[in-house]
Write a structure and sequence with these properties.
Elements (H helix, E strand, L loop, with lengths): L8 H14 L2 H12 L2 E2 H8 L3 H13 L3 E6 L2 E6 L2 H8 L12
Antiparallel strand pairs: 1-3, 2-3
Pfam family, one: HTH_5
Keywords: DNA-binding, Transcription, Transcription regulation
Protein name: ArsR family transcriptional regulator
């Protein structure tokens, strides 16, 4: 029987691991915020109403898995999504998430 699977096993396994990491509700919210605008830890914990150590822990997981990276700008560490697979998924939320309100 011919193998008609279009998705190589190693790709599927890698994507499944990334989806599992991103599937945590708080991490998903963080990724949505980071996608809209590169953020630092203080912006994330204020927006998400979570303690700074909680946000830092989740960012460490995302960074360890290669989903986000950070760069120092002044006295802030700014986070960006660097994984193209995750970036495409989060960017796809644009049509279903409410617009960011300007204050």
């Amino acid at each position: 029987m011919e193998n008609k699977c279009n998705c190589p096993e190693e790709l599927v396994e890698g994507y499944a691991r990334k989806l599992k990491v991103c599937g945590h509700p708080l991490r998903l919210k963080m990724l949505c915020l980071i996608e809209r605008q590169d953020c630092c830890v203080s912006e994330l914990w204020q927006c998400l109403d979570q303690p700074q150590p909680v946000i830092s822990q989740h960012l460490a997981v995302l960074k360890d898995k290669g989903i986000v990276d950070s760069a120092t700008e002044g006295n802030k560490r700014i986070y960006r999504i660097v994984d193209p697979f995750v970036q495409n998924i989060i960017a796809g939320f644009d049509g279903i998430l409410p617009e960011k309100s300007s204050q």
